[in-house]
């Protein structure tokens, strides 16, 4: 059995989500993929629709569930998938919204860069947030 890590970071785009549960010295990685990843949609003139793929609710739900036991969550990614995840969490698991410490645009970091960024971000957030005993 692995130890519980208080902090979690999600890096998400429409092709995958990398989820890390971590503490100051250790990190556990989980990679989730949507069943049917979206392809780039090319918008044609005079066509109906925004040219954006609809949110994949099953994928977003799996990502949300993967961090449901965390105490503080940082959501990152390069595009609008991170906002779709937050919208999904707000609609389907409002209690989880209270655990989201931030939503940040982060391009394509390595795993190590992402965890280091999240450790720095959430450690600073912890110092500003009253701790519950």
Question: Can you walk me through this structure?
Answer:
This protein is globular. With 133 residues, it is an alpha/beta fold. The protein has a single domain, classed as eRF1 domain 2 (Nucleotidyltransferase, domain 5, 2-Layer Sandwich), CATH 3.30.420. It has helices at residues 57-66, 81-92, 94-97, 111-128; strands spanning 7-12, 17-22, 27-32, 72-77, 100-105. The protein has a 5-stranded mixed beta sheet, with helices on both faces. Helices cover 33% and strands 23% of the residues. Helix 1 (57-66) crosses helix 2 (81-92). It contains 4 helices and 5 strands, in the order βββαβααβα.
Task: Give the structure's gist in a few sentences.
This protein is an alpha/beta fold and 133 residues long. It has a single domain (7-34, 53-128), classed as Nucleotidyltransferase, domain 5 (2-Layer Sandwich), CATH 3.30.420.
Name some characteristics of this structure.
4 helices; 5 strands; alpha/beta
At CATH level 2, the architecture is 2-Layer Sandwich
* Arithmetic mean pLDDT: 85
Q: Tell me the number of structural domains.
A: 1
Shape: globular
> What is the CATH level 1 assignment?
Alpha Beta
Give the beta-strand count: 5
Order of helices and strands: EEEHEHHEH
How does the major sheet shape up?
A: 5 strands, mixed
What is the count of DSSP helices, taking H or I runs of 4+ residues? 4
Give the % helix. Answer: 25-40%
Low-confidence stretches: 40-44
Relevant CATH superfamily: eRF1 domain 2
Global Rg? 16 Å
């Amino acid at each position: 059995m692995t130890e519980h890590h208080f902090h979690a970071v999600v890096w998400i785009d429409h092709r995958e989500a990398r989820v890390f549960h971590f503490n100051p010295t250790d990190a556990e990685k989980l990679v989730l993929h949507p069943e049917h990843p979206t392809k780039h949609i090319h918008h044609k003139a005079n066509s109906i629709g925004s040219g954006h793929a609809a949110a994949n609710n099953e994928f977003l739900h799996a990502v949300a569930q993967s961090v449901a036991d965390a105490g503080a969550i940082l959501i990152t990614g390069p595009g609008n998938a991170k906002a779709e995840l937050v919208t999904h969490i707000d609609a389907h698991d409002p209690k989880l919204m209270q655990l989201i410490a931030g939503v940040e645009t982060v391009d394509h970091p390595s795993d190590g860069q992402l965890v280091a960024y999240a450790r720095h971000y959430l450690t600073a957030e912890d110092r500003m947030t009253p701790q519950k005993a």
